[in-house]
C-alpha cells in the first residue's frame, strides 16, 4: 500500500457552498473570541458578506459555463437547476437574515426556564444569542447541499445539516416561549422520525441497486430484476422522508404547529428556503434516480398532490391564527408544486415542468418572506398579534402595511399582475402538457378555495371597524422595512415583467439534471 | 452480489457461527424487554450488541464490528447506565416496569419485524455475498472514506459543529448582557 490516492475536488464549483460554511465557522470563532458587546455587530456583516459573496460565486460558476459532470467524486451535481436553486436559496437567505437581525424576536437566554426570575434577569441584562447567525448559516449551507446532492448518502447528511440547526432555532422565540419550545420538540421528534424513514429507504434501495448514487440507481432499475419489493418499499420510504420535509399531506401535521411556534424570522427562512431545497431533492430522487419507475410512483404522487392541495386549502379556512393560516397556505402551495413534479415525460416536457417549478419557487419564496416580515410588525402587548380578530380594521390604522400584506395575499392566491399568477400558470401549463389535466382541475379549484380565505383576511383588514385596543404597528427596523420593500418589489416585478426570470429558469431547466 | 449459490444443507463453519450469534442476539434482545430489573436490561443489551458485532465480524466487516463495540457497547450502554444512576431509578426488581400498552407494543413490534423479515427475505433470497476476508478492513474503509466519500465525511463534521453550538445555546446559563 503506497499511500492513498487523493480525491479530486472541484473547489471552484463548490466555492459557494464552501463560502457559506466558511462564514458559519468564522461566526463560531467570533462567538469564541470576540467580546460580547461586539459580537452582534461582527456577526451580521460576516453573515451577510458570506451569503452575498456566495451568490457572486454562483454567478461566477454560471459565467464559466455550467459543469456537465458531478463534482467531488460524484457527490454533488452542480448543474443548471442546482445553480438556480442555490441562487434562489441565497437570495431568500439574505432577506431572511435581515429579518433575523431584529433583536426582539429571539430569546435572551434559552437556558432560563420560562416565567422564572432567571428569565427576567436575562432580559434585563439584555442577553442575546448571537449564535443564531452561525446556526442559520449552517442551515442555509445544508439547504444548498441538500438540493444539489448527487447520491443518497450526501443527501441524508445534508438533510441533517439543514434540519438540526432549524430544530434548535425553532425553540428560541422571545415571547410565548412554551409554545416555541413545544414546536421545537415536535419538529425534532417528527423530523427524526422522517429521517429514519429516509435512512431505511436508502438502505433498502442500496440493497436493490448496490449503490447509493442517483445515476447508479437509475441504471440498476433496468439491469437488476426480481427484487421489486425491496425497491418499491425503499422508494416509498425515501418518499416519506422527502414529502415530510416539503410538508405534503399526509405528512403535513408538523407545519402549522412549527410555523406558529417558531420565531417569525426563522419561520420565514423555513417556509422559503427549506421548501426550495426540499423540492430540489424531491426532483433529484424522483426524476434522476427513480425516473424510470414513474409508472409506479406517479399514481401515489397523484394521491399525495390532491390530498395536499385539498387539505391545505380547506384546513386553512378554519384557522384563526395568521401564522397557522400561512402554514396551511404553504401546504397548499407544496401541493401545487407537486403537480409539476408529476408532469414528467419526454425531455422537453421535463424541461417545461422544471422551468415552471423553478419559477414558482422563486415567486412563492420571496412573497412568503415578505408576508412573514409584515407579521413581525403587527404587535400586541405580548408580542406579535397572531389572532386574526386582532387584524380587524388594520387597513384603517395603517393603510400602507395592510395594503402590502393584502398584495402578498393576492400573490399567494395567484391573482394576475402578481408573481403568484405566473408561477401557478407556469406549473399548471406544464402539468396540462404532461397530461395531468384532472390534477390541474383539482389545483384550480383548491386555488379558488384558497383565494376565499386570503380575501377573507383582506376584507377583515379593510372593511371591519378596528378594535379600540387593537395592536400597534411597530416602527420597522431598516432591515425589516427593506425586506418588505424587496419582497413587494419582487412580487410586482415578477407579476408584470416575468420574462427575465422565466428565461433564466428556462436556461437552468434546459440542461435538466446531470447524471 | 449474486453468484453460484451453495446448498444450504451443508453449512460452512462460518455460517454455523453466524447462526449461533444470531440466536444469541435475538435471545438477549428478548431478555432486554422482558427482564424485571433495569440494570439487567442494560447488561443484556451489552450482550445483544456484542453478539451483533460478532455477526459483523463473521461477515468480514471488521471495521463496522469495532465501531459497533466502541459506540453501542461502549458509549450507548454506558450512557444508559449513567442515566439509571443519575435519575435514581429503582435498581432492584421492580414490578411496575410493564406498561399497560405492552400488548399493543408487542403487536406493533411483531408487525414491524414481519414486514422487515419479509422484505429482506424477498429481496435477498437468491443473493449470495462472497465473503473474501479483508474487504471490510479498516484500510479499505479508510481509503474509500477519504476518497469517494470525503465530502459527506466533511459535511458530517459541519453537522457535529452545528450540534455542539446548538447544545451550548440551549444549556448555557451564564449569559450576561452585552
UniProtKB/TrEMBL annotation, chain A:
Please tell me where this protein is predominantly located: membrane
Q: Which GO terms describe its biological process?
A: ATP synthesis coupled electron transport
Query: Mind naming one GO cellular-component term on file for this protein?
Result: endomembrane system
Could you tell me what reaction this enzyme catalyses? Answer: a quinone + NADH + 5 H(+)(in) = a quinol + NAD(+) + 4 H(+)(out)
Subcellular localization(s) per the UniProt record: Cell membrane; Endomembrane system; Membrane
Give the record's keywords alphabetically.
Cell membrane, Membrane, NAD, Quinone, Translocase, Transmembrane, Transmembrane helix, Transport
Write one Pfam family the protein is assigned to: Proton_antipo_M
Q: Which class of enzymes does this protein belong to?
A: translocase
* EC number from the UniProt entry: 7.1.1.-
Q: Pinpoint the NADH:quinone oxidoreductase/Mrp antiporter transmembrane domain residues.
A: 149-448
By its UniProt entry, which InterPro entries does this protein fall under? NADH-Q_OxRdtase_suN/2, ND/Mrp_TM
Recorded superkingdom? Bacteria
Q: Name one GO molecular function term.
A: NADH dehydrogenase (ubiquinone) activity
Residues annotated as transmembrane: 14-34, 46-63, 83-101, 122-146, 152-173, 185-209, 229-254, 266-287, 299-318, 325-345, 357-378, 399-422, 428-461, 473-497
Complex and partners: NDH-1 is composed of 14 different subunits. Subunits NuoA, H, J, K, L, M, N constitute the membrane sector of the complex.
Function, as annotated, reads: NDH-1 shuttles electrons from NADH, via FMN and iron-sulfur (Fe-S) centers, to quinones in the respiratory chain. The immediate electron acceptor for the enzyme in this species is believed to be a menaquinone. Couples the redox reaction to proton translocation (for every two electrons transferred, four hydrogen ions are translocated across the cytoplasmic membrane), and thus conserves the redox energy in a proton gradient.
Q: Which family does it belong to?
A: Belongs to the complex I subunit 2 family.
Name this polypeptide is given: NADH-quinone oxidoreductase subunit N
Which organism is this protein's natural source? Answer: Spongiactinospora gelatinilytica
TrEMBL record, chain B:
Lineage in the entry? Bacteria, Bacillati, Actinomycetota, Actinomycetes, Streptosporangiales
- Please tell me where this protein is predominantly located: membrane
Q: Which family does it belong to?
A: Belongs to the complex I subunit 6 family.
Q: Which transformation does this protein catalyse, written as a reaction?
A: a quinone + NADH + 5 H(+)(in) = a quinol + NAD(+) + 4 H(+)(out)
Record localization: Cell membrane
Which EC class does it fall in? translocase
Family annotation (InterPro entries): NADH_UbQ/plastoQ_OxRdtase_su6, Nuo/plastoQ_OxRdtase_6_NuoJ
Membrane topology of this protein: Multi-pass membrane protein
Q: Where are the transmembrane segments?
A: 16-34, 41-59, 65-91, 103-121, 149-170
Looking up Gene3D superfamilies in the UniProt record yields: NADH-ubiquinone/plastoquinone oxidoreductase chain 6, subunit NuoJ
Q: Which GO terms describe its cellular component?
A: plasma membrane
Name the job this protein performs. Answer: NDH-1 shuttles electrons from NADH, via FMN and iron-sulfur (Fe-S) centers, to quinones in the respiratory chain. Couples the redox reaction to proton translocation (for every two electrons transferred, four hydrogen ions are translocated across the cytoplasmic membrane), and thus conserves the redox energy in a proton gradient.
**Which Enzyme Commission number(s) are listed?**
7.1.1.-
Q: What is this protein called?
A: NADH-quinone oxidoreductase subunit J
GO MF annotations in UniProt:
NADH dehydrogenase (ubiquinone) activity; quinone binding
What's one Pfam family the UniProt record gives for this protein? Oxidored_q3
Q: Supply the source organism for this entry.
A: Spongiactinospora gelatinilytica
